[in-house]
Amino acid sequence: QVQLVESGGGLVQAGGSLRLSCAASGSFFSINAMGWYRQAPEKQRELVATITSGGTLNYADSVKGRFTISRDSAKNTVNLQMNSLKPEDTAVYYCNALVRTTFRGYEYDYWGQGTQVTVSS
């Protein structure tokens, strides 16, 4: 099994910064992409940012220039530095990892439990 544990959420004023971290643990062969998604009340979960094992980055248009995703493949961690936060960034943020559990196995999506980010105006 694979576990993803997030940390770093909280309450911040508009214009402030937060840093989210996620660590993957358990038994697996490799991790391909890792990333962050978010879900605001009464809205669907949406992509925030992803990073592949090769370093390819993808950001939602709404966070480009404000958020930075980074990854330490040796430690199986992914971070999200969030700057210039806006009230509309308020959501539960979920860590995601695309994991190959065995050498010839399939890849599966795993999710963290979520961490609340609240930006006050």
Reading the helices and strands in chain order gives EEEEEEEEEEE
How many β strands by DSSP? 11
Note the total helix count: 0
Structural class: mainly beta
Helix content: under 10%
Strand content: over 45%
Terminal CA distance? 40 Å
Q: Over the alpha carbons, how many angstroms does the gyration radius reach?
A: 14 Å
Q: Outline the biggest β-sheet.
A: 7 strands, mixed
Mean pLDDT score, rounded?
96
What is the molecular shape? elongated
Poorly predicted regions: none
Task: Describe it.
- It is a single chain.
- The protein is an all-beta fold and 121 residues long.
- Helices cover 0% and strands 59% of the residues.
- It contains no helices and 11 strands.
- It has strands spanning 2-7, 10-13, 18-26, 30-39, 46-51, 57-59, 67-72, 77-82, 91-100, 107-111, 115-120.
- Strands 2, 4, 5, 6, 9, 10 and 11 form a 7-stranded mixed beta sheet that branches.
- It is elongated, with a radius of gyration of 14 Å.
- The termini are far apart.
- The mean pLDDT is 96.
Briefly characterize the structure.
With 121 residues, the protein is mainly beta. Helices cover 0% and strands 59% of the residues.
Keywords:
mainly beta, 7-stranded mixed beta sheet
Strand-helix topology:
Elements: E1 2-7, E2 10-13, E3 18-26, E4 30-39, E5 46-51, E6 57-59, E7 67-72, E8 77-82, E9 91-100, E10 107-111, E11 115-120
Parallel strand pairs: 2-11
Antiparallel strand pairs: 1-3, 3-8, 4-5, 4-9, 5-6, 7-8, 9-10, 9-11
